[in-house]
């Protein structure tokens, strides 16, 4: 694939990402508005029932109305404040001071008219009167291909430790450098990536960290979590380097860095570095490794 074709593909992906984010925000706003409308209608229905009560209804009905008013955070009329029920056996009276708001609310839900025309995705009420957010179940469950070598056991390798430490460093607010300036430096080494905004790179990092922590990615980061986006970027950079007569091997992933180090210093020395990267072993080497992580973020964030 030539440079123009790769650049066009990246542009199309970014445009799809923008449209996807806009559609997600629209669905989220519609869902929120629908929930607010449903809650408002429920409260209005309860308030209407409370207003219609005369205070001389059956004690059970008054208790239900009072429970509903309390559950909906409405003012409870004085006539409901302390109902007294005559005991059929001895004529004494008993004051009721405890209420089952869940049972009462569930009982009243069937009596409220829901005439609001809601989008299909927002009709998710259960009989127990609990509400679920359908957007929670629209999360992306497949990881981006570029992080596959650093998941599971791969997260504990030297390459994995370096990869995730740089990702976490991007969100740490390190005072050694200004985040956006550092990302621009990383993007500036290649013409093919100069048009990418630092905010998008930050979103890519957030999406990958979210997958590592939760096993899925939210719709908010969908545009930066496309399956092969990282591989497309790497291919774009390699094409650019070759077109300018530069060695593509200057562009290394963490996995490639680990392989090169192992080739130079051997397995035993690499294992020592891995322990230092995992904050184990020689304290001096640990400190040096932390400085290397910070420098990697400064100069080559996007290459990770």
Summarize the SSE layout with pairings.
Layout: H1 3-52, H2 59-71, E1 84-86, E2 93-95, H3 101-109, H4 158-170, H5 179-187, H6 198-214, H7 229-243, H8 254-277, H9 283-300
Antiparallel strand pairs: 1-2
Helix pairs in contact: 1-2, 1-7, 2-3, 4-6, 4-8, 4-9, 5-6, 5-9, 8-9
Region (Disordered): 1-36
Biased composition (Basic and acidic residues): 1-12
Protein name: BZIP domain-containing protein
Account of the 3D structure:
By secondary structure, the chain is mostly helical. It has 9 helices and 2 strands. The chain has a two-stranded antiparallel sheet. A hairpin with a 6-residue loop joins strand 1 (84-86) and strand 2 (93-95). It is elongated, with a radius of gyration of 30 Å.
């Amino acid at each position: 694939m030539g440079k123009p074709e790769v650049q066009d593909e990246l542009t199309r992906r970014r445009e799809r990402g923008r449209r996807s984010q806009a559609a997600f925000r629209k669905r989220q706003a519609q869902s929120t508005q629908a929930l607010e409308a449903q809650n408002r209608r429920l409260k209005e229905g309860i308030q209407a029932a409370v207003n219609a009560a005369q205070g001389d209804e059956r004690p059970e009905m008054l208790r239900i109305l009072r429970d509903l008013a309390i559950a909906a955070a409405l003012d409870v009329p004085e006539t409901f404040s302390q109902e007294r029920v005559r005991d059929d056996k001895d004529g004494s009276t008993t004051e009721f001071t405890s209420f089952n708001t869940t049972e009462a609310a569930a009982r009243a839900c069937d009596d409220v008219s829901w005439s609001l025309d809601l989008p299909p995705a927002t009709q998710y009420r259960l009989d127990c009167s609990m509400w679920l957010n359908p957007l929670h179940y629209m999360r992306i469950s497949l990881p981006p291909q570029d992080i596959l070598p650093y998941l599971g056991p791969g997260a504990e390798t030297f390459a994995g430790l370096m990869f995730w430490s740089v990702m976490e460093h991007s969100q740490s607010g390190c005072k050694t450098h200004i985040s956006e300036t550092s990302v621009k430096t990383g993007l500036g080494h290649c013409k093919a990536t100069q048009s990418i905004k630092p905010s998008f790179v930050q979103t890519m990092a957030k999406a990958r960290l979210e997958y590592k922590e939760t096993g899925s990615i939210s719709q908010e980061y969908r545009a930066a979590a496309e399956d092969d986006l990282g591989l497309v970027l790497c291919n774009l950079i390699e094409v650019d380097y070759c077109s300018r007569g530069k060695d593509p091997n200057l562009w290394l992933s963490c996995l490639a860095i680990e392989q090169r180090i192992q080739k130079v210093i051997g397995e035993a020395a690499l294992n020592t570095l891995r322990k230092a990267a995992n904050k184990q072993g020689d304290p001096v080497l640990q400190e040096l490794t932390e400085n290397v992580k910070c420098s990697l973020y400064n100069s080559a964030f996007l290459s990770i």
